[in-house]
């Protein structure tokens, strides 16, 4: 007996969440990438993009008809009401797409939702297990500067706009400590995978 185990994976920018997600995928996890789906539901030609344009006006479209994300982000960044209006369009569409993907998941599957803003959007309750990838802020900054070409100021600003390590850890069932080497990270992910598979096999179907 088993059931699909829903795992929410999160972590601050540069924490190593993508590394963890890739390794879980290699083990056989079904990965649901929330950011990617959120982009897909507003691709040109979708009802999602039409709804966003109806709400925010044609000026959030680029000349080629695609969504001008930077412009939309600048509108919703400082305005909670506009952000809520955007979420009211996008979230249900993401939910539908996720439900479709879930229907295709075999029994006993481990489904990992890669959700950068899980804590910020208060989504912990949606998952059987919440996994947080954690690293010291200075380590996050070093990775973002060395590997993603950000300036230190950009990296600090991005981190400051997100939940704190403490806020994330408070919601975690499982914390992956990514303050060390990639080998150390991989060993933790491999141990986590064994535990997740065990839970997927023993969880009551429901
Ligand atoms: P996130 O998805 O959390 O923003 P990534 O997984 O993309 O972060 O990691 C940021 C960068 O740091 C990537 O280039 C990644 O390969 C690298 N990285 C992650 N963890 C480690 C580690 N333990 N040691 C060295 N580099 C790492």
TrEMBL record:
Name its pathway. Cofactor biosynthesis; coenzyme A biosynthesis; CoA from (R)-pantothenate: step 5/5
Question: In which compartments does the protein localize?
Answer: Cytoplasm
Q: List the Pfam families hit by this protein, alphabetically.
A: CoaE (PF01121)
Residue positions binding ATP: 14-19
GO cellular component: a single term: cytoplasm
EC number(s): the record gives 2.7.1.24
Which enzyme class, named as a word?
transferase
Give the record's GO biological process terms. coenzyme A biosynthetic process
Among CDD domains, the record links this protein to:
DPCK (cd02022)
Q: What's in the keyword line of the UniProt record?
A: ATP-binding, Coenzyme A biosynthesis, Cytoplasm, Kinase, Nucleotide-binding, Transferase
Provide the GO MF annotations for this entry.
ATP binding; dephospho-CoA kinase activity
Its principal location? Answer: cytoplasm
Q: Which InterPro entries match?
A: Depp_CoAkinase, P-loop_NTPase
Q: Which domain of life is it from?
A: Bacteria
Known catalytic reactions? 3'-dephospho-CoA + ATP = ADP + CoA + H(+)
Function, in words: Catalyzes the phosphorylation of the 3'-hydroxyl group of dephosphocoenzyme A to form coenzyme A.
HAMAP family this protein is in?
A: Dephospho_CoA_kinase (MF_00376)
Task: Give the record's family classification.
Answer: Belongs to the CoaE family.
Q: What is this protein called?
A: Dephospho-CoA kinase
